[in-house]
Records
---
Amino acid sequence: MNKLDIVREVSKVTCAGVEAKDAVEVFIKTIKDALKRGEKVTIQGFGSFYVKVKGPYLARNPKTGELINKEGKKVVKFRPSPEILE
């Protein structure tokens, strides 16, 4: 399922296609903005999105085998609600 499929499902239940598209866009933007601020986003009965900071690490260049120091980075994680896994 992709964003267009979600828009179609929302438009079946609530409103016209353009309004559904706008609603989905606002929903996604709201989650992205909260994650950029470092906030955890929890949707009851669905799960939680949060940002995890990974520290620096060593990686290996597959062509040369040389070890490379990689900087830490932020990654988005998702933890599903137990209800979703039933």
Note: The mean pLDDT is 92.
---
Amino acid sequence: MKRLCTAAVFASALATQAWAENNPLNLSGRLDVGYRYYFDDGQYAGQADAGFHPFVGFQLNGNFGVGAGEVVFQFAGLNDDENDRSLFNIQKAYFTRSFENWDLVLGYNVEDWGVSNGRTIVNVMNAKNRTNQVGNSDLIGTPMANANLFTDIGTFSFYALSDSVRGNFGGRATRQRGPFYTDDGLVRYEDSNSPDFALRYTHEFSLGDGSLDIGVSAYQGTNRESLRMPGCILADTIVSASACAQFNADVLAGYESGKTVTKAAADAGTDAFTAVTPYYQEIKQLGLTTVYAEGNTQLRFEGFLRDASGESFVGAIVGGDHSFHNLMGGDGTLTLALEYHYDDRGGRQSVTVYDDDLFVGVNFIANDTNDSRFNLGVFYDLDEKSQIYTLSASRRIGDRFRVGLNANHVVSDSLTDPLSSVDGNSYFEFSLSAFF
């Protein structure tokens, strides 16, 4: 028996070695360390004071062959418990195989359909990480089955998704939140058993002296962008468990009867209101993206028509960018972007601060040996006059390291503006990344 076990182990080792030789594992990644500095103390209970706050992050990418296919994975993580930004994100973990004129993807994946510079609005396939900064959200991987058919008239993509949806909202210490934190311990769905499907068509056409990229999409299923509903969390209140449960039930019943979120909460009474809880609607959405490129100029459009909770509304981004090359005799490229962002959703939908906004962006790539980069973006609300500023700059040090600087600043003087709840959370962030 001992000889048999030894032979089995030896045979397994040889088989593993042979498999590894024929299916090499390719790995690459990044390790980040840094400090984020907040200029002001947190406005709400549980938030950290002003000062430096350390963080550690990573990204791991890899792939290896399996038969005629391939396994691809990409994991990202961040550790910053002091500000409730910690997250482990399975962005990709799928098996893919290509056939004569189509391919198949099975597993976790991120599908980014957006084409705009400031932000994207057509992405419905993935939940988002809402804890990092105002004006930018990372996509979280979603389990899906995806088949892509490649033809002479374009690419047809078909998706079936898991309806298990969880965005990342952080907790009490999260700086990017309003006076009531989001508690994802009480997650509710309009329909947790409905199938989620999406179709998308993409193609590139020659048009005049340029080219037109078009993407048309249709989605039916659970909205990955949750509506934040007033809720009662028993640990935060002195009311009884039955009163807490009754408040949650009354708010949900009021909303599902056709009331706005605010009206449903007011009618339920606010004594037990201690947090907001995620509620995931069922939606139907038609999306369209277009990019017309001619020379150094690109004109962009991104829009959707969505039906959710008995209301139909539209969102759109229209704008473009122009690039200037070889500035002042150098190799650098400067790109200037201008966009208008519009959304006409009502009070039964998740809140947006981008309903009537301009975006101006400046992006500079030095194209030098150190891959120096600079990016500045500004959102300006035409109604409330509030602004969101984002800045990033980075430069490579040798072949293995990159130093980066990021900053985020919000200006809002109106109490009716949702952005006023995160005013006072301005920061700058220094990071050092090591690549392998």
Note: Helices lie at 2-22, 241-256, 261-268.
---
Amino acid sequence: MNIPSSPPSNTSLSDAMGTSPLTVFLSLINYIVDHQAHTDPSSSLTDNIPDAQEYDFIVVGAGAGGIIVANRLTEVSNWSVLLLEAGGEEPSYAEVPSYCVFMQQTSSEVDWGYWSEARPNFCGGNGCSMQRGKVLGGSTTTNSMFYVRGHHRDYDEWARMGNEGWGYEDILKYFVKSEDNGNPNLVKTKYHGSGGYQSVEVFPYQDINTVALLKGLEEIGLTTRDINGEHQKGVMLSQMTAKNGERRSANIAFLKPIRDKRSNLKVLTNALVTKVLIDAYTKTANGVQYHKNGKFMTAIARKEVIVSGGAINSPQLLQLSGVGPREVLEPLGIPVIQDLKVGYNFHDHICSSGVNYTLTKTSQWAGLDAQYEHLTEYALNRTGPLSATGVAQVVAFKTTEYENITDYNDIQFTFENTHVGGVHPNSYYDQITVIPIVLRPKSRGYIKIKSKDPFEHPLINPNYFSEEYDIKILLKGLQYGIDFLKSKTFQELGYRLNTSPMHGCSKHEFASEPYWRCVIKKYSRTNYHLGGSCKMGPASDQDAVVDSSLRVYNVTNLRVIDASIMPFVISGNTNAPTMMIAEKGADMIKRDWNIKLT
């Protein structure tokens, strides 16, 4: 779907009434939100800069990692920072929570359009959509807005692996630093903060099924609690990166407040960095090459280059720059500056659909008249169905029999709003799909460039299900999805298991293990929690790319600060942890350049 940046100026409401419901909705939501958009005078600051312009720091990628690093470095008034983003400005329609389903289409103007290599044992054998935000804010502009930090043990394990300073008690302050939590009871605890750049709160609207899910899951044994607090096992009406019914991307939260106020910050959009410039003799990064407006340009870094492109783009850029596996670079004619396992250890939280609840009494499907009413309510008050994501705002965590530590969750559940008629805003649905997610997969894949061409997408092989363990977790999760229906609340509301076989699996008995294995093979997909491809680890770890200060091994003045540095992806959504990594990374840069930390 190509999402228009604004509705036709000559389209009236009466004209729109004659088109399809989806077209009407998209046109109206764009029209209203665009015409209510907050004026951002900083948009004019994205003009060109002279070739070979010098800055103290160059930050590549304006997602959660890059934007936060740029924000924190420009707190030092005599440091200059250039922030480069391959995508454009964040469109105003991105703020509508229920609209996120459209933001995540791979044909969207704000998506990179990545697909994994096709393999027969996952994603139906056709390759997986690897949606990544190509826009200011990166994937924080396109994601489902969950604010989930992972499990305490994840970070303690990172530290035990030789990454000093990354234990939970070490990094908790960086979660708190970013946060402006809207729940006054939570901010009284040591786990949450107020006054930070990132607004965190629940959506203002919960429909009947959202309330029922919370109650029903509690009835079958899951405790309702703050998953980001002392314990991580249970169910939660998720905290979101949102405020007053609007998405708060990293762009809106961390960049917009400073972009036109700090003269030491320069932001370039639609500027694809094609190479980090590294002196081959001294192995020192001294700038970048980038492409903008049809021209290749350079920018010089006096102090450091920080790569924050994410789990796909960061390893791609390093490899193009001569930092990566010798066996990948030499056949392509790229001089090897440093032989490191860049692109390896790539992994993700694989998940699968397959368990669907038909809503016999509580369908949230709405006709055009009701949709217009909801649209008006959202436009006037930022409330109502469009201010939330339906049942997708519920998140749950469990521990299966395969995990020896009883409180260390190895499976996550999210819930998708689905409609038999196709893709619609999250508010409107007549089915609930249970999505089990493998939290600590054992399978590992890789990212490899295919050529010297920086515009060619890299080869992406997540290598899902190369380990049987990951399949076993999903098998257990799909069965849990059926077991949830034992809830008294679900039964009273008429939730019914849809027992129609999934296409391609009808030869197997429904809900048998062969049936579920077939479903997993055909309907598994990414949960967009990509990481690990520029692994952080001690020098003794042959797979490590960066040290515990996020410095690339044996290359001076080059760091990676994003989800790619995770030794293993944490047990939950990756947005909040990436913000934490960026906050900590920025402090380490300041420390290394003798700036007193506050």
Note: The CA atoms of residues 539 and 547 lie 7 Å apart.
---
Amino acid sequence: MVDEALVKEMKGKFDAGAAASDVMDSLKVFELFKQIAVENEDLKEELEDMDITIQMLITDEDKKFWYKIEGNVGFL
């Protein structure tokens, strides 16, 4: 089940815009996406066979945040 509190929090973040976001918000987006995919069989099937690499660089005036994810999408 998708965490409704997380949905509301992320809607607020999206409405506030990128300037108001925190680096950790990107991880919350992935968590929300994972929860949605667990409940959507079409999306889950699409992701299960996918071998992916994600690289993301987030910067502002004073900070730089980079992470790389390699592997398969798993559902717990």
Note: The longest helix spans residues 25-39.
